[in-house]
UniProtKB/TrEMBL annotation, chains A, B:
Lineage, uppermost ranks: Bacteria, Pseudomonadati, Pseudomonadota, Gammaproteobacteria, Enterobacterales
Species: Rahnella woolbedingensis
Any one Gene Ontology molecular-function term assigned to this protein's record: electron transfer activity
InterPro entries reported in the protein's UniProt record: Cyt_c-like_dom, Cyt_c-like_dom_sf, Cyt_C_IC, Cytochrome_c_Oxidase_Subunit
Protein name (Swiss-Prot/TrEMBL): Cytochrome c
Domain Cytochrome c: 11-92
Superkingdom as given in the UniProt entry: Bacteria
Signal peptide positions on this chain: none
Length: 95, 95
């Protein structure tokens, strides 16, 4: 059965999920980061997620894991960022 | 009745709550930011919250609302950061 998934902040949840494999290594399979130095993404506001990814891509964040995030985000298009943000915002924020 | 609250990442939840008034203006009364350009903080990993506040304080984040966060975090001690991080991590991550 095909289901039309909701879009958030111009993003497509299903497309975001398909693009999220690299993210899951640190942020968890469902956006529930186990290592507490990484943020949980599940249920986070989509607009904030998109702003953060754009900030990493533009090199506006440094220190800590920012270099890793800049490397990952450098290859993301605006649509990729919208899709990933919609996907993580759509997940249940379980602890 | 006095209750001993748990400490997370060296922080004290009750002390963090008492220091959180300024944060609530944008991040919500219980860490549930209503305006989606701001991140929800409720239930976020305490270590990540602390790392983020230290990064803002050190000027390692720019663009967007980073200037506002740098201003707020500039007056926070290491203990303040630990307490605030413990407090927000302790809150239920309701959507």
């Amino acid at each position: 059965m095909l289901v039309s998934l909701p879009a958030l902040a111009g993003g497509n949840v299903a497309d975001g999920q398909s693009k999220s494999a690299s993210c899951a290594a640190c942020h968890g399979a469902k956006g529930q980061a186990v290592n507490s130095i990484y943020p949980k993404l599940a249920g986070q506001n989509a607009d904030y997620l998109a702003l953060s990814l754009h900030a990493y891509k533009k090199g506006e964040r440094s220190g800590g894991q920012a270099g890793v995030m800049q490397a990952f985000s450098s290859s993301l298009s605006d649509q990729d960022i919208s899709d990933l943000s919609a996907y993580y915002a759509s997940l249940a924020p379980l602890k």
